[in-house]
Amino acid sequence: MINSNNESIADILKSIDEGKTQLPDFQRGWVWEDGRIRALIASISNGYPIGAAMFLQTGGDDIRFKYRLFEGVDKSKENVEPERLVLDGQQRNTSIYRSMYNKKAVETTDGKKKSIKRFYYLNIPRCLDTLTDRIDAVESIPEDKIVKENIGRDIRLDLSTREKEYAEHRFPLNIVFDSQEMMRWQRGYTRYHNSDDVDNNWDKFYDTVIAPMTKYQIPVIQIGNDVPKEAVCQVFENVNQGGVSLTVFELVTATFAADNFELRKDWAEIWKDLSTYRQLYYKRQQSFTGTDFLTALTLLASYEKKNSGIAVSCKKRDVLRLTYADYKKYRNRLIAGVKESTKFLSSQRIFTALDMPYTSQLIPLSVIFAINPNAWFDAGNKKKLEKWYWCGVFGELYGGANETRYVTDILGLMEWVNDDASEPDTVRRSNFHASRLQQLYTRNSAAYKGIMALILKEHALDFIKGTEMDFATFVEEATDIHHIFPQNHCEKSNIDRGLWNSVINKTPIYARTNRIIGGYAPSKYLSSIERNHGVTAEDLNRYLSSHQIDVEAIRNDDFYTYFEKRKQALLDLVERATGKTISGRFDDIQNESSYVDEAEVNEIE
């Protein structure tokens, strides 16, 4: 059940101090800086709203999170079992607790992120001045309660004793919710000045500032312990847009922490190993995350239990219900499956994370290898796996919510191993129309990356060195995708941008070779390669053919003949990879640009 009501911050702060209200372990540390704390205090003292808080009741069977005390709470409260956990409002509640309830200096940062320790005071005369903004009456004072100037040589303000606070008319905010201490401070203040004016000012200050602060309330959303874990996750994401994202990984981390297992630390160790594989991490591009790992493990665990009546599934709710026992049981098998999947990708000439058509396809691929790695050493089964993979890429079927597809493909692939007639759903549904090829302009498309991989799979050779672009040379030579008919030449020849900037006019080329090609017409740069780099015409023709380029057309700078023949050659590669006949293969190339997005056409890679 979810309820909402108003609750006084006095009661909330008392509950935090007693350890009855704590934080779930997935919440990040307190990070608010000095300026934000002052602004928060000013808002409360003015009675302005500061937003709602959301609490989760503890004690439920479905939700078991490791918890921790708020920053600043006495460590003797660590053994207290909390009654509720803060899901939203941690930063505000911690700031209020540290500055207005706890008696220790607040450990925060200044505007330059430098660590500082501060006490907070209200300047009484400024609070009573209607022309002064309240934030200017909230003062941040160093830990020793002495404010210095002139590079520390002179003391501008000294609040190091109660008498000095009285003399300077500065009220310490960390006693505002301590009624006895506040009464002592009031008596000392009025006795120190012994003035009717000061007495009157104090009464006005108390009535207009202090009393409203002690009665200040905030809206509170209370989530009962009967609410499912996936609902808690969704509610948190909805209300906590500006804070730390509560991912599935964070929730499972908090759940496993209740079993004294540090999932985040374990994943760091796993990733340290996996990140050495270029398909998983390359140039800051990560293709496989901790959440992906948990999703894959959930899929693997449910598949292995399917004969026990467990449904094979890996939706968010299933991942959130993953047990530590299952994690421990299937962890190493999945890691091995992920590694085997990178070997498979290498065999398909997908060498780095940047070149991965669909990172989401890594999840079922890893699980397939984890279920039965030996099955895919069989040549027939390997061809089936390849067909499934490329049907997913060119059918463009892994671009949305994929949890259901993961399941149908895992079940379908394993059935396909035993029954040649039982194709997986992705293979059956895959469809690639010839017109789509010309509409591929950038790496934003999985099919675009897929075309490049298929070109490499045909043993593409560098135009100058004549070496194959394999796993080693692809990275060492800084291979990238470049135009075959260069942009400069095409623009001067008034060739339609929708043609020359499509994937049909692009191919993987070594960085140095591309610099030599420049912006010249193909006939010119090919002659230069032969003349200046010792490449024979026969060898160069062979290198060009390895990229599915018609030699005669490119040597004659015949763009349209070259374009049509390369289009058909690339479509042949897609047909062989997917095992599917492609429709619309011989439509007029001049009519296809009307289907494309102008923004993509104009993006150059």
Structure description:
With 605 residues, the chain is of the alpha+beta class. Helix content is 48%, strand content 12%. The chain has 28 helices and 16 strands. Strands 1-12-3-5-2-4 form a six-stranded mixed sheet. Strands 6, 7, 8 and 11 form a four-stranded antiparallel sheet that branches. A hairpin with a 4-residue loop joins strand 9 and strand 10 (154-158). The longest helix has 24 residues, at 324-347. The two termini are 53 Å apart. 39% of the residues are buried.
What are the main properties of this structure?
six-stranded mixed sheet, 12% strand, 605 residues, alpha+beta
Quick structural summary:
With 605 residues, the chain is of the alpha+beta class.
Structural class: alpha+beta
Secondary structure: number of strands: 16
Which percent bin holds the helix content?
Answer: 40-55%
Q: Which parts are unreliable, with pLDDT below 50 for 5 consecutive residues or more?
A: 589-596
SS element count, helices: 28
Q: What is the strand arrangement across the widest sheet? A: 1-12-3-5-2-4
Please summarize the sheet with the most strands. 6 strands, mixed
Portion of residues in beta strands equals 5-15%
**Kindly state the mean pLDDT as a whole number?**
90
Measured between the Cα atoms of the first and last residue, the distance is 53 Å
Name the shape in a single word: elongated
Radius of gyration: 34 Å
